[in-house]
Amino acid sequence: MTANVDTQLRGHGPRGLSVKRRGERDGGQRESPRRRSTLVMVSRIAFILFVLSLWQFLSGRVIEDFLISNPIDVAVKLFALLGDPHMHDNILVTAQELVLGWFLGSVAGAVVGWCIGAVKFLGEVLEPIIIAINGIPKVALAPMFLLWFGLGIGSKVAIASMIVFFLVFNNVYSGMRNVPRPLVDVAKAMGASRIYIVRRVVLPSVSVPLFAALRAGVPFAMIGVIAAEFISADEGLGNYSMEATQQFDSAGLFAALVIIVAMVVVGGGIIGVFQRRALAWMRD
Questions:
Q1: Radius of gyration, alpha carbons of the chain
Q2: Bridge partners, 251 (sequence order)
Q3: Which of 234, 203, 223 has the alpha carbon at shortest distance from 102?
Q4: Which residue in 174, 175, 176, 163 sits closest to 105, CA to CA?
Q5: CATH top-level class for 68-283?
Q6: Which ranges in 119-152 belong to alpha helices (H)?
Q7: Model pTM?
Q8: What is the pLDDT of residues 104-117, one digit of tens each?
Q9: How far apart are CA 202 and CA 228, in angstroms?
Q10: Residue 281: band (very low, low, confident or very high) from pLDDT cuts 50, 70, 90
Q11: pLDDT at residue 228 above 80?
């Protein structure tokens, strides 16, 4: 009888209480991220509303309306543009240039970064040359690309892909150089195949910086596309923005900026979905 009582007391004693408290703490920790995410979202919306309200107040009172417009006029202009078939063509052209420039630059940067990082001799020879070329302002090369590829979509894609190339190359090359050599040596010593080493050692080291570069490459590719359309284009969001600026149409300019930002956010979100799936090994 005494032994049974002692067992029950131990189950409900300090250890049992500690387990219960730990469970309560765990439950609180599970709930706190939800509350925090809600707080972050509410704070984000409140900040945006504050900025819009301040913008509406300053427009026409402190700053001339034709310089900064106002949120109401921008919203009206935005809805009008979204219903304009000509604007649909501009969005489609810019989207094509963005996707092609990002894709070609990402593929080329990943392949070159992987090859140079895998072969030490190539890295020693080509790394300073690529760094020197990367120091050239990409927009300064726009006239040369216009000469080579013409005034169409090719020159915009070339500028965007060149910008993305160096971004992805640097991250992939750094990831290849930071592959833990002891793990590679241990895997080789245990008879692991080259494919196994790539899957289990190399890819985990390269995947994180690679996807970081891919996500960052979307806005950088958009910068290249819009800058090229500023220089020479007869269609696209950059061309429309330039025309709106020349006509002092600030509402149209801000509406075009909203569309550009939305395209960048959507592109980054799509890459983020693939990133979470591709890096699922981090949560295993």
A1: 27
A2: none
A3: 223
A4: 163
A5: mainly alpha
A6: 120-134, 142-149
A7: 0.82
A8: 999 999 999 999 98
A9: 37
A10: low
A11: yes
Both structure tokens of 273: 């979905």
From residue 102, give the alpha-carbon distance in Å to each of 22, 116, 166, 236, 246. 48, 21, 11, 17, 29
- Write down the H helix ranges in 135-249: 142-149, 153-177, 181-189, 194-197, 203-231, 237-246
Read off the DSSP letter of residue 140. G
Burial class (CB in 10 A: 0-12, 13-18, 19+), 111: middle
What does the pLDDT look like over 232-273, one tens digit per residue?
Answer: 888 999 999 999 999 999 999 999 999 999 999 999 999 988
Q: Percent of the chain scored above 90 by pLDDT?
A: 51
Contact predicate 39/47, CB 8 Å: no
Where residue 282 falls among pLDDT bands split at 50, 70, 90?
low
User: 32: left (phi > 0), else alpha (psi -120 to 50), else beta?
Assistant: alpha
Give the integer Cα–Cα distance in Å for 254 and 69. 8
Q: What single-letter DSSP state applies at residue 281?
A: G
